[in-house]
Amino acid sequence: MTLKPQYEADEDFLLPQEVIEGIQCLHSTVPDEAAALIEYFNATFVSGQLRHSDEPGVIIPVHLCRTPPVFPPEKWNMFLAASYYTTRMGFERYAYKGLETGSRDVCYHVIKQNKILFVLASALNPGNEEMGRHLVTHGDGVKDIAFSVEDLDAIMKLCEINCLALMSVVLQRAKERGAKVVKEIWEEEDEGGRVRFARVQTYGDTTHTFVERGNYNGLFLPGFKKTLIAVDKILTKLPTIKLDFIDHIVGNQPNLEMESTAAWYEKHLMFHRFWSVDDTQVHTQYSSLRSIVVSNWEETIKMPINEPAPGKKKSQIQEYVDYYGGAGVQHIALNTQDIIQEVQKLRERGVEFLVVPDTYYDQLREKLKSSKVRIAEDMDVLQKEKILVDYDDNGYLLQIFTKNMQDRPTVFLEVIQRRNFSGFGAGNFKALFEAIELDQAARGNL
Fold this sequence. Notes:
Strand order of the largest sheet: 9-10-11-8-12-15-14-13
Domain VOC: 66-213, 245-403
Keywords: Cytoplasm, Dioxygenase, Endoplasmic reticulum, Golgi apparatus, Iron, Membrane, Metal-binding, Oxidoreductase, Phenylalanine catabolism, Repeat, Tyrosine catabolism
Protein name: 4-hydroxyphenylpyruvate dioxygenase
Cofactor: Fe cation
Organism: Homarus americanus
Helix content: 25-40%
């Protein structure tokens, strides 16, 4: 623990892939008497245990037959991820829960930007089966999407009850409709007050946690304290980012599971269908998708549900399902009031976005000539920044997508600006698919 502050302040610590490369280097350079120690560390914490073939004395090649390590580099801590989001995306370290605050099993870093809150979690001890199993199967991803009970106003109106009793009703109604309850109502408290929670299972291994804060006035949630890490001086030299709130969260499903997933939200959480497209509307030469957007009563929560449709080659939805190991969150859309300015500043910070071909903008200019809508932003600037435009007769949206946020081609982010437009960029799906297909081809997955 005495080295922890120094490690966290050191910009030269190794990334997970560099740890693997470092172990490989050590294997070839350490003296024979240290080889066993290096292999133990490699098997337990880095690459996993070597498996032997059925033929005595023959070891199957390492890259094919190592079992998953108990505690891989990606599970060591979430400091790296928190550092990325603060340095690249402009988030601030907001709250912390770990060994220093009494959490002995899991460490949490909360990062914040306006109304956007991400909680990054990692196991503190070897043998954490739940987190280890999830990480080995899915890699870095979104495990839980939390809903504030205050957002479920329709339940309050239907039941005509006060907020303090709402949690029981939410959970009871979900249970009555057959939802799988991962964890019954529990309470946590500290000097800031008491908070009640409950958790249900949704698609894949993803869960929803209901949070009833009541009159809690602590920093974040019980047990969380102000971050222990000093403000990184490099952040003062970077442009300030202004992303305001989560616009929507997209979940990808295996083929033919979209309808049942959408029905789950309708039945268990009383959501309704807000918007949809099918593969006749969204397709490229190689691939296509179907999508249904579900929303709560007041339409403050929107959850697009995607599935791949058969095509000549593998769609980006199917690629996600293959690498994530099933259904899960594909991307999180972050709303802003000035997408051009924010994208330019994010690029300055080193964020990489998908590249859209210039032909998209040539076609867009032609289509807009016969449209009632007028785009206020400079089209040349939108083209330079590779920002997409979708529109109808009443308004338009501007959107752009980051490249994948981790090694697996799974989770990414979207930056979106809306101008009197509540759609989800159906007019851009073809351009988005084609941009992703370029990256898929580079990965050998198209």
